[in-house]
Amino acid sequence: MTARAPRIRVQRRPVHGVLLLDKPLGLSSNDALQKAKWLLRAEKAGHTGTLDPLASGVLPLCFGAATKFSQLQLDAPKTYEAVARLGVTTTTGDAEGDVVDRRDVDPARLAPERLAAVQRQFTGPIRQVPPMHSALKKDGKALYEYARAGIAVEREARDVVIHALQLSLAEDAEGQPAVRLRVTCSKGTYIRTLGEDVGAALGCGAHLTFLRRVDTGGLGVERCVTLAALEAMDEAARMDCVQPVETLLAGHAAVTLDHDNTARFLSGVRRRGPWPDAPAVAVFGDEPRALLGVGRVAAGELIPERLLSPQEIAQILESTPRAERGTLEPTL
Fold it and tell me: Deepest of 15, 84, 280, 287, by most Cβ within 10 A of its Cβ?
């Protein structure tokens, strides 16, 4: 019997920041996270909401202190590009499912004015019934588990917002009639369901054959790195791809505190100052400049909400060249 080679144990280390990953097709968000975590030898990591294995595109991965702010990206609007093949509906709403129905595609129903009317119909607040093939849970069990067992369960329609929608006629990869969608939407929106609903409104049904997330909360795909590229890099280059924790806080005004107020703020003590009211601020210490956490300002009072630990701050400063510290300039 051949003895197995001993497994190489990866020496983990503290990594703090955000890796903007261009997730490939066929990989779950968690698998992508674990791969990146292994490549960076990071101790602690989390993602900012799942991206379907059949979708590619922007998946911000949070490491160390950045995990404290991952909810901000989970709640952020997201932009997708998708292609929905017309005339065919499937059990899953995408190309992985079994065909349920085929219909002829009437060109008269795809006239520009009809497409524009459907675009208006699905722009703004809408209600969606979550698909059975989704990770949404009912009674502690994911809906896709019921679907795989051939069990259909009742799902309540949910309110979502389509902030912007562009529809245009196209052909899918097989040259079949399709609609191209570009969607900016609220969290909780199912693009597969939107594609199905658009197809139903056009009178012929549809299913997604392509889905790519191109932006989440202002973090665009052009800033992302692929797993293949990351794997080909040496360790120093990989670490250069990790962006500062405050990358997640671009929508926050910045406040800088002096040494005495820094210590009190990190202890959770409110501070008073000449700051205008603001619902979300990123708070920095001065000399050395370092992110302390986030809070809000009300009636001249800075109220702590989510703080970094002194150990996290020390580790970030130790790993960050002085010239790169503090990417947010104070604005309050």
Answer: 84
